[in-house]
Specification:
The chain is an alpha/beta fold. Helices cover 39% and strands 12% of the residues. It has ten helices and seven strands. The strands form two sheets. The chain has a five-stranded parallel sheet with strand order 2-3-4-1-5. Strands 6-7 form a two-stranded parallel sheet. Helix 4 links the parallel strand 3 and strand 4. Helix 3 packs parallel to helix 4 and helix 6 crosses helix 9. It is elongated, with a radius of gyration of 24 Å. It starts with a helix and ends in a 49-residue tail after the last strand. Keywords: ATP-binding, Nucleotide-binding. One of its GO terms (molecular function) is ATP hydrolysis activity. This is AAA+ ATPase domain-containing protein. Belongs to the CbxX/CfxQ family.
Length: 288
């Protein structure tokens, strides 16, 4: 459709049919690239002339819902106006009206539905979130689901371990670090070893950024106290296996970013508590 529209534009045959400008739903877990794809959609639609600006306005429920009766509608409309010419990206859209019984939430959704229809040629709304929650949210307003064409509901699968390894290498290279020789081939195994399946499913690419940051923190601690003649330039930017630490959710425990620094590998028994004992909690004093 986009290619056909562009060819008509090139021949001066632009039509008034704006059905190509459809609002979208991105369904998938956190860290699967929904926000990045929204930015690409905005750039693409701007490039072919369907969006005048091509910017992305990222909002959450707090940016749309006011604290007093009658204020949510104008606040929601104001956010939509800022997105005219581009994309309004609402991540975790179901947080607007999580149980379907919020008066403010209903006012927000009613306003969105009206603006999406009345000004559909001016902007694109992309709502994103987890599968189950998005399905329930779409049923909270009779007109909401009808504003989204089924052809523009996109599902973002969780990344495989091999894909997470590629993301890890990319994030590492962005920071001008690299893996020790031979370690990249074993990276999928290390990711499985130092993260839980639950964390990978919930955080995906975001978990790899955290793992990279933890590895670099450990790598820095490994050589920072050495004399200059004891460490080479390569040592300073090389991540080794010993720098990997358990990252994400320890079994049966909430994520505690202050407690994953020196946990080591996750235990074989998923029922074992991987949290560090009080006396094993790493000291941060030397980093200050």
């Amino acid at each position: 459709m986009l290619k056909a529209h562009r060819r008509r534009v090139e021949r001066g045959l632009t039509t008034e049919d704006m059905s190509i400008m459809s609002h979208m739903v991105f369904i998938g877990s956190s860290g699967t690239g929904k926000t990045m794809m929204a930015r690409l959609v905005a750039r693409m639609l701007h490039h072919i002339g369907l969006l005048s600006k091509g910017h992305v306005l990222e909002v959450a429920s707090k940016d749309l819902i006011a604290g007093h009766c009658g204020q949510t509608g104008p606040k929601t409309f104001a956010a939509c106006e800022k997105a005219f010419g581009g994309v309004l990206f609402i991540d975790e859209a179901y947080s607007i009206n999580p149980k379907g019984d919020s008066a403010f939430g209903r006012e927000c959704v009613d306003t969105l539905v009206k603006v999406m229809e009345d000004h559909r040629e001016k902007f694109v709304v992309i709502m994103a979130g987890y599968p189950e929650c998005m399905e329930e949210f779409m049923e909270t307003n009779p007109g909401l689901k009808s504003r989204f064409n089924a052809r523009f509901m996109f599902y973002f699968d969780d990344y495989t371990t091999e894909e997470l390894a590629e993301i890890f290498v990319l994030e590492l290279s962005k920071r001008h670090y690299h893996l020790d020789e031979g370690l990249e081939d074993r990276l999928p195994q290390l990711i499985t070893q130092y993260t839980t399946q639950d964390a990978r499913a919930r955080q995906n690419g975001r978990l790899m950024r955290t793992l990279v940051e933890n590895c670099i923190a450990n790598q820095n601690r490994r050589w920072v106290h050495l004399d200059d003649n004891e460490v080479s330039d390569t040592d300073m930017v090389t991540v080794k296996e010993e720098d990997f630490v358990a990252t994400g959710y320890a079994p049966k425990d909430p994520l505690d970013p202050w407690a994953v620094v020196k946990i080591g590998r996750l235990p074989e028994d998923p029922g074992t508590d991987a949290s560090p004992k009080p006396e094993e909690t790493p000291s941060w004093a030397h980093l200050l």
